[in-house]
Amino acid sequence: MFNFGWNVNPFTIQVILPVGISFYTFHGLSYVIDIYKNKIKAEKNYIDYAVFVSFFPLLVAGPIERATHLLPQIKKKRTFNYDKAIDGIYQIIWGLFKKIVIADSCAQYVNEIFKHYETLNSLSLFMGAFYFAFQIYGDFSGYSDIALGTAKLFGIDLLRNFNFPYFSRDIAEFWRRWHISLSSWFRDYLYIPLGGSKGGNWMRIRNTFIIFIVSGFWHGANWTFIVWGALNACYFLPLLLANSNRNNLEIVAKGKMLPNIREFFSMAITFLLVLFSWIFFRADNITMAVQYIKRMLAFNFKNGAEYLMERYSVELVLLICFFLFFEWISRENEHPFFGKWLYLKLTVILLGIITLGAYANIVDFIYFQF
User: Fold this and answer.
1) Which residues have CB under 8 Å from 204's CB, separation 6+?
2) Residue 231, C-beta contacts closer than 8 angstroms, at least 6 positions apart
3) Which residues are catalytic?
4) d(CA 316, CA 105)
5) Are 116 and 310 in contact (CB under 8 A)?
6) Cα gap 151→60, rounded to integer Å
7) Which stretches of 55-200 are DSSP H helices?
8) Per-residue pLDDT tens over the stretch 292-329
């Protein structure tokens, strides 16, 4: 038997999965299902189909494309569009800032805090969850921005995957703005075929739990992901049963500089609920997640005080506030490089990537594992 450099145990099966397999599996499934539902006809041009299946910007971590959206663009003759290409470059730069400056800077604190959670105080643990919320957002939405920007260089518009989710006023709005391509995929290919919200309350509850638990299982065969999905289903159900899950469809404080008091507190409460659920997503196992939460909610600010300055730097908090400010003033656009002060904003972001990025530890994209 040939030996290719690794030991094979005949009594176990070890499956080596390609990076991003869940993304292009769903990508391909949408094509087959849409043909079955007569939404599209089977593609006869093998080259066009191959490009659709293997379009490299989205291959590793999405967004999850639809044949109805991407195939017509591939088949259409395209010419170089300068304005679209420039917009794509701006979006790539913004994605790099999210990943290198925000996500990777947060990652080093997150890893240390979750690693030593048993010895840290409540504030340290809260900051660990807070930093992870921005690590996973900067990491995943940063990749999506890079993918969308790269596709624009080829004259292709991919599905938008994030729409400023941390400015959501309830959990339903959050899931309309977070990982949009996956949420809409589950809605169209699982939730609606199961009956959606048309049946009685029992069917609505059942279908909601199914899509959220399947979403958790999609992320990995670990109970932490299942609990994360079930917890979000519990967040979502009161809105669904009260028929208020589509109350916040417009951009928050549209056309205004600041939100009103009600909007501010709605966003803050929604963010705290999401932050709490991220602990299960990040923890290695259920026991760790439960112990982490218990210690965080113990309001113990004495033990582990020696980690105060080391574990959560003031500079990183200020950097996140700066990032949120840029997101807030850009929430009606796809990225910050619009409108006034374009070159000033571009210069600040590039300087941030060059200077702060040089000190951040390079971390693999989180969603490369899914």
Assistant:
1) 197, 240, 241
2) 276, 277, 280
3) 219
4) 8
5) no
6) 14
7) 67-75, 82-96, 104-115, 122-153, 171-177, 180-186
8) 999 999 887 765 544 444 545 788 888 999 999 989 98
